[in-house]
């Protein structure tokens, strides 16, 4: 996450209960399904009538319309321009993705999230006004590579390119030792945020808390220091 992303998410209205999703491929469908299951109203569109019908049949959206999103008149008629947040999920068709993003931004939609399939695509989407760009395949690939090379890291949140918060399996070297004894800050330059216990996390654990093999710990710090952990 970078500062521009933080600014974007802070600008989102907390009382917004409606979203429009343009494109019903795998990514678009997953966004629709998740939002719908969370109780939000979702209007989805796609140029493919079959995908629109499937979304309605499977009840992953509130409403769905077949239309060509490169046509501003069609978007306006469907009411897309009235939404506070629109997700352009047409990542594999670059021209259509860029034109659609331009259409919704020129119409005054305040928050537009767009899917990119390459770095060049990302730059073009930002150039035409996308407020936030996502790389689902790239992010999944990075996560898989990290999991394969560091299987002891259960979860990771990148604060910036150099710092992260990670959930890791307690190293064998730490088994039976107290939080104070492992000297996480002095030896590794890391801060301990939480330790798992009975299926829950103990936040800011006491220095006398003993770590157990097979449990998890959450630490924050520089990536190069995280990589020095005996995991």
UniProtKB/TrEMBL annotation:
<dbReference type="Pfam" id="PF02254">
    <property type="entry name" value="TrkA_N"/>
</dbReference>
<dbReference type="InterPro" id="IPR036721">
    <property type="entry name" value="RCK_C_sf"/>
</dbReference>
<feature type="domain" description="RCK N-terminal">
    <location>
        <begin position="16"/>
        <end position="134"/>
    </location>
</feature>
<dbReference type="InterPro" id="IPR050721">
    <property type="entry name" value="Trk_Ktr_HKT_K-transport"/>
</dbReference>
<protein>
    <recommendedName>
        <fullName>Potassium transporter</fullName>
    </recommendedName>
</protein>
<dbReference type="GO" id="GO:0006813">
    <property type="term" value="P:potassium ion transport"/>
</dbReference>
<feature type="domain" description="RCK C-terminal">
    <location>
        <begin position="152"/>
        <end position="231"/>
    </location>
</feature>
<dbReference type="Pfam" id="PF02080">
    <property type="entry name" value="TrkA_C"/>
</dbReference>
<dbReference type="InterPro" id="IPR006037">
    <property type="entry name" value="RCK_C"/>
</dbReference>
<dbReference type="GO" id="GO:0008324">
    <property type="term" value="F:monoatomic cation transmembrane transporter activity"/>
</dbReference>
<dbReference type="InterPro" id="IPR036291">
    <property type="entry name" value="NAD(P)-bd_dom_sf"/>
</dbReference>
<dbReference type="InterPro" id="IPR003148">
    <property type="entry name" value="RCK_N"/>
</dbReference>
């Amino acid at each position: 996450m970078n500062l521009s992303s933080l600014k974007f998410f802070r600008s989102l209205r907390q009382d917004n209960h409606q979203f429009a999703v343009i494109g019903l491929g795998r990514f678009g469908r997953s966004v629709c399904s998740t939002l719908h299951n969370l109780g939000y109203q979702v209007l989805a569109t796609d140029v493919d009538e079959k995908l629109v019908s499937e979304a309605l049949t499977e009840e992953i959206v509130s409403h769905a319309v077949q239309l060509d999103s490169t046509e501003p008149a069609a978007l306006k008629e469907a009411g897309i321009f009235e939404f506070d947040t629109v997700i352009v999920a047409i990542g594999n068709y670059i021209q259509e993705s860029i034109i659609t993003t331009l259409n919704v931004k020129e119409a005054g939609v305040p928050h537009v999230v767009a899917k990119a399939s390459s770095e060049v695509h990302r730059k073009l989407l930002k150039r035409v006004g996308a407020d936030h760009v996502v790389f689902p395949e790239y992010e999944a690939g990075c996560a898989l590579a990290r999991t394969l090379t560091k299987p002891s890291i259960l979860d990771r949140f990148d604060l910036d390119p150099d710092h992260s918060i990670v959930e890791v399996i307690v190293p064998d070297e730490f088994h039976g030792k107290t939080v104070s004894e492992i000297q996480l800050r002095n030896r590794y330059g890391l801060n301990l945020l939480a330790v798992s216990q009975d299926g829950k996390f103990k936040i800011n654990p006491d220095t006398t808390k003993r770590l157990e093999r097979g449990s998890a710990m959450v630490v924050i710090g520089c990536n190069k220091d995280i990589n020095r952990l005996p995991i």
